[in-house]
UniProtKB/TrEMBL annotation:
It comes from Clytia hemisphaerica. It is an enzyme of class 2 (transferase). This is Inositol-tetrakisphosphate 1-kinase. Its cofactor is Mg(2+). GO terms for molecular function: ATP binding; inositol-1,3,4-trisphosphate 5-kinase activity; inositol-1,3,4-trisphosphate 6-kinase activity; inositol-3,4,5,6-tetrakisphosphate 1-kinase activity; isomerase activity; magnesium ion binding.
Length: 333
């Protein structure tokens, strides 16, 4: 395929996701300059509009239709199946990202396995996944406590829901406070990290890093009551100051990024880690969260997001990275 020809790019996103990530608005100008035709497809009209499949590449987030409140379950299933049929009927079209690989990465347990496979040691820095344990649904409190004891999970622990779309979590400090509400979940050891999270956004061969607020340091204290939280209150800007979570008001702090500080994290570590995660997950667009452990300086990778909003990335950087990804994927076929 010659690099001089036009790339035909289709966008198939639920309204809420399109609004948050601002595609195609965020990339339209550069796409015009680079000879990329952008078409927005309404997934609900795939069949009635009889869309001709002459696209080189399509961007989707079809499983987010399950989060559309105005749809019935049957309508959700229909629109998702229509999208899958459209992809399967056009095998030469690049699907960004592969639907099955994307679906698997909405499961937090699967993501944890992927992240663990990508553990590495570079420049004296260990990248690791905190010790974790799956708690199946319906288990009684005594059995859950026995499982944690046998696995030698250290407290405090983060109790996370099994699916990445669920934001409710809890920080538990004692085995005595573990109960049936902890199932189903993924339990993960909590490491102090000076209340800073590093969000890494990946587009194929490129990545960007931004700092975000995180849970403040907590020492081991079996008398501390559990803290119930929404992950968006922890790390999203503009969600307010929560003293039980934050050390200080996030809105009054300066948060760095790889734009303001290119050496915000070790580049050799990130280069290797991004490639390993991309290859292991099969995703081209994804994000992951890193913590720098207070006591050791090692990197704990704690979450993988199959389609983040790339919030905090300047529009010109986002557009340049996105367009380069499209060109790399299409012209490498």
């Amino acid at each position: 395929m010659t690099k001089s020809r036009i790339i035909r790019f289709a966008v198939m996103l639920p309204k809420d996701k399109a609004r948050k990530i601002r595609i195609p608005e965020r990339i339209e100008s550069l796409c015009q300059q680079e000879g990329i035709e952008v078409t927005t497809i309404d997934a609900f009209k795939l069949k009635e509009d009889k869309i001709e499949a002459n696209f080189d590449i399509v961007l989707h987030k079809i499983f987010d239709y399950f989060n559309e409140p105005e749809l019935t379950v049957e309508q959700m299933q229909d629109v998702i199946q229509n999208c899958k049929d459209f992809f399967e009927q056009n095998p030469k079209m690049i699907v960004l990202d592969d639907t099955e690989k994307y679906r698997k990465c909405t499961d937090r347990l699967y993501c944890t396995r992927i992240m663990r496979e990508c553990s590495l040691f570079v420049d004296g820095i260990q990248v690791f996944v905190p010790k974790s344990l799956e708690i199946a649904a319906g288990l009684p409190s005594d059995q859950v406590r026995d499982m944690l004891s046998e696995a030698k999970i250290n407290f405090p622990i983060l109790v996370k829901p099994m699916y990445t779309s669920d934001r409710k979590m809890s920080l538990v400090f004692s085995l005595d406070d573990v109960n049936e509400k902890c199932s189903p979940s993924l339990v993960q050891e909590f490491y102090n990290h000076n209340d800073v999270m590093y969000k890494v956004f990946v587009m194929n061969n490129r990545y960007n890093v931004i700092q975000r607020p995180s849970i403040k340091n907590y020492e081991k204290d079996p008398h501390q009551k559990p803290i119930f939280l929404d992950s968006r209150d922890v790390s999203k800007m503009g969600r307010g100051f929560h003293p039980e979570i934050h050390k200080s008001d996030p809105s009054k702090q300066t948060w760095q990024s790889s734009f303001s500080n290119p050496d915000i994290l070790n580049k050799s570590v990130l280069n290797s880690l991004c490639v390993k995660l991309r290859d292991a997950s099969g995703l081209k667009m994804f994000g992951f969260d890193l913590l720098v452990v207070r006591e050791t300086g090692h990197y704990a990778i704690v979450d993988l997001n199959p389609f983040p909003g790339f919030k905090g990335i300047p529009d010109d950087v986002f557009a340049d990275d996105f367009v380069q990804m499209l060109k790399d994927l299409v012209f490498s076929k």
